[in-house]
Structure to design on (65 residues):
């Protein structure tokens, strides 16, 4: 995934991890399982492709550019 084309989101913590997925808690206690292959975590930010943000209903957590 190209970070230049990814959406940047703020998150609180990675709750669980499997071989292929991460369980992420976003602010307001929103919890989602996301595929590791589509996630890049840098500090307190997670980068996801736009299609995944939309399909997971995470638009409210996107940090404005």
């Amino acid at each position: 995934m190209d970070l230049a084309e990814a959406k940047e989101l703020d998150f609180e913590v990675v709750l669980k991890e499997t071989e292929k997925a991460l369980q992420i808690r976003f602010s307001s206690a929103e919890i989602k399982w996301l595929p590791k292959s589509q996630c890049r975590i840098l500090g307190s930010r997670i980068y996801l492709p736009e299609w995944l943000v939309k399909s997971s209903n995470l638009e409210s957590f996107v940090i404005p550019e």
The longest strand covers residues 13-17. The domain at 3-56 is CATH 2.30.30 (SH3 type barrels.). The beta strands are 7-10, 13-17, 21-25, 31-35, 40-42, 45-48.
